[in-house]
Amino acid sequence: MEILLVSANREKSPYPVFPLGLSYLAGSLLAAGHRLRTIDLCFADDPEKLLRDELSSFPPAAVILSIRNIDNVTYPGSRSYLEGVKTVVDACRGKAPVILGGSGFSLMPRELLDFFCGDFGVVGEGEEILPLLLDRLAKGESAQGLPGVLTKGITEYLPPAPVEKIGTPDRSLFQVERYNREGGMANLQTKRGCPFSCIYCTYPILEGSRLRLRDVDEVITEIRELVELNGTEYLYFVDDIFNYPMDYAEKLCRAMIVAGLSIHWSAFINPSFITPDLITVMVEAGCDAFEFGTDSGSPVMLRNLGKSFTTVDVRAASALCADHGVDFAHYILFGGPGETEETLLESFALMDDISPTAVIGMTGIRIYPGTPLHHKALKEGIITPETSLLESVFYISPAVRDTLCDLVTTEALKRRNWVVPGLELNMSDTMMAALRHFPVRGPLWKLMKHLGRSRVRPMSIPS
């Protein structure tokens, strides 16, 4: 069958993100014998015209549209992507069956299938189930009974089945070099699933709680191809947590060293699972930036948020980064259950003590269906069962609901290494776009050590 793959993501802040999920689908669909064309709307000036032209020149048997996010998950500067995606779906309707999928779609599949008026939806991982769905469509058979597949007008569907053997994405149909150039890095996945219990997190919903690890040799081959065929100079590991399991992380890093791969990279790290030996081998393998999903500097808030570590772990992990001379950033979520002015100030105090390269602060926590935070928000009456979560709804502790943004702004402006996207503190879309014109590779927060005082709104960029 002739299949058109469409990446609906158009967000470029803080940088454009390569459609990794769609490239995994491309690999499985090509292996099944389908003929593919792709449209990446991230770089499209006129998405509707691009789609119309493509649909005319290449009439597909089906359109597969991947939705990465439904909004920018930022408060109070929230920005929805729903209407933009709906325009794309409308342009395809009537030309071929429209199959929706992707991580954003999978968070609220029934609601989104109805909102976009799609024909089918695939929840969760699609590499194995999509070829089966396309085979049924080719034969004129019903899609009912396929795990994770929704059909327009039918409410019930079977739960998705996880992919047991994670393959290698096929990037040949996508603009890898442009993402390298404009995004400063390439993304790569080594595992799926998350066994941890952060109360707001969607990873266990999207990928399950059971870890599934890729073969290390396959990962090394993928990195080598990115470096040698695509000119990639920097990698970002998109795993929820890179350094768990620790033995797998160490094995991968040692394999990277043995392979002699000339590449720098960064990843999200859990401070509970970092040792002097592991950080040494990570740095030797090319890691030059560590990102910690710390969430809070308050022991009370760490417990309330369901974190698997303590402030002692955060201090120890940060000290190891400082000892090895590598950049590191902590991500803080303000406003969770039990947040008060006192716990908020504890977060600023801890960050002052450990002196990271950057701190990225987020005000409010986006509520997603099925998470423990969702259940808590229902219990507390912050939302009701009738509340639509298609438009972003944020949990903010009642104790700081009216003062959170002012408190964070006041404290963050005292410190030069803080970025607060929702309040445009040391960050704006204009600034991010301008910085990418410099030869920056890797996370933009690494530049914080070169900046002056903190400021609100876009910073002027020197010529």
* Cα shape: globular
**Structural domains: how many:** 2
Low-confidence stretches: 458-463
**Rg from Cα:** 22 Å
Level of helix content? 25-40%
By helix and strand content, what is the structural category? alpha/beta
For the biggest sheet, the summary is: 7 strands, parallel
Structure in words:
β10, α10 and β11 (264-269) form a beta-alpha-beta unit. The relative contact order is 0.10. Mean pLDDT is 93; it is low at 458-463. The radius of gyration is 22 Å and the shape is globular. 36% of the residues lie in helices and 16% in strands. The strands form four sheets. It has a seven-stranded parallel beta sheet with strand order 7-10-11-12-13-14-17. The chain has a six-stranded mixed beta sheet with strand order 2-1-3-4-5-6, with helices on both faces. With 463 residues, the chain is α/β, with parallel strands linked by helices. The chain has two domains: 2-151, Cobalamin-binding domain (Rossmann fold); 176-450, TIM Barrel (Alpha-Beta Barrel), CATH 3.20.20.70. The longest helix has 15 residues, at 216-230. α2 (47-57) packs parallel to α3 (82-92), α10 (246-259) runs parallel beside α11 and α14 packs parallel to α16 (404-412). It has 17 helices and 17 strands. It starts with a strand and ends in a 28-residue tail after the last helix. It has helices spanning 20-31, 47-57, 82-92, 103-107, 109-116, 129-139, 176-183, 203-207, 216-230, 246-259, 276-284, 299-304, 311-323, 341-354, 372-380, 404-412, 429-435; strands spanning 2-7, 35-40, 62-66, 98-101, 120-122, 149-151, 186-188, 191-192, 212-213, 234-237, 264-269, 287-295, 327-334, 358-363, 365-366, 394-395, 418-419.
